[in-house]
Amino acid sequence: MTETLVDAPAAVTAYLRAKTNTDVDSVVGCFAPDAVVHDEGRDHVGTAAIRAWAEGVASAYTLTRTVRSVRGVGPATVVAVEVAGDFPGSPVVLHHHFTSTDDGIAALTICP
């Protein structure tokens, strides 16, 4: 994963590593205080809501993640991640659309 993400913003790289390690505190630490995560049709606004979302995903499934591609450099980055685990339709490639600022990840949209 490190080689693939060499040009991605530091917060994006840190987020993907934290998700791989199921480290909720580190996941939350990657986001700006007023960040928005859009996943499975729902918005999670602010770090408290992002923490609840990350904890829910971590407790609901056993997952493995493999970065397949990275597009864009700078504030807009799209990372294709193959996610496999104990959920219907596994494995699936999910596209993670990141918007980064100096404060960390400002927005993340996850979609097929």
UniProtKB/TrEMBL annotation:
The SnoaL-like domain covers 12-104
Any Pfam family the entry gives: SnoaL_2
Recorded protein name is: Nuclear transport factor 2 family protein
Q: Which organism is it from?
A: Pseudonocardia lutea
Tell me the classification of the organism that encodes this protein: Bacteria, Bacillati, Actinomycetota, Actinomycetes, Pseudonocardiales
